[in-house]
Amino acid sequence: MPDMTTQAVAHEHGFGATRRRDLWWLGPVATAIGLLAFVVYSTWAAFQGANYEWGSYLSPFYSPLIFGHGEHAWLQLPAGATHPAWFPLSTAFLVLWAPGLFRLTCYYYRKAYYRSIWLDPMACAVGEPRNSYLGERYLPLILQNSHRFFAYLAVLFILLLGYDAVHSYIWLDPATGTHRFGMGLGSIVLTLNPVFLGAYTFGCHSLRHLVGGKKDCFSHSAGGHTRFKLWSAVSVLNRNHQLFAWISLFWVGFTDIYVRFIACSGHDVRFF
Ligand code: FES
């Protein structure tokens, strides 16, 4: 049924002009605060170049650890060095661009920051800053169409972070110098991270199109049954894409905070 309130005020013109009397601005303001808080924190964490690992735990902002000192590092740095001569920043900058661009070009996040940060449009029946609508057919917004390629990269990151989660249960025993199975609160935190990120990533609109797009009839296409099952599974996650976008964003930040906290304090809650 048409929203009569929205229809009645749809003719208002001028940036921010509206006759709406509801709290339409609350959503964009809350979204802007959430997104900006994450961007500020993750940028700060990436510049630190320290306290991103503790034992078998590794912050997701620094995974995969291209260079470093601990057991996670692909390339070992000399003692005291924070980065190699060929790269002046922390290793996080070699990593974060991929999940960052994946989120930036996500269909849900586009809606979120177009409304809350770009303010165009801020909400239904609220005046826009421009009179013309160019869509995403021209530069720079046409670059949003690269989202599908970042989605493929994001799947790779789920695998890498899944490996980190498994690794968090393998502890070095200082007494014997051997590895053993162990579990701490950090293991649970690191395990939930790829679970939430997977729920977000595998509900991606581009992946949904990849498994089920361009098919008028699943039963008449090659591998139709399997394809239909995949499409149905992705569709379940896709229906809650916004929810998983926020849960996974919060949890990946919290995971970094948790690892950073115990790297500084030296104490984790160990179960066995
Ligand atoms: Fe949101 Fe692809 S549409 S992750």
Outline of the structure:
The protein has 272 residues and is mainly alpha-helical. The chain is built from nine helices and six strands.
SS-derived structural category: mainly alpha
Question: Bound compounds, please?
Answer: FE2/S2 (inorganic) cluster
Alpha plus pi helix count: 9
Give the neighbour order of strands across the main sheet: 1-2
Mean pLDDT: 91
What share of the residues lie within helices?
40-55%
For the secondary structure, the number of strands is: 6
Give the CA-based shape: globular
- How much of the sequence lies in strands comes to 5-15%
Residue runs with pLDDT of under 50 for 5 or more positions: 4-10
Cα(first) to Cα(last) distance is 57 Å
State the order of secondary-structure elements, H for helix, E for strand.
HHEEEEHHHEEHHHH
Radius of gyration from the alpha-carbon trace, in angstroms? 22 Å
Return the domain count: 1
Q: Please describe the biggest sheet, giving its number of strands, its sense, and whether it closes into a barrel.
A: 2 strands, antiparallel
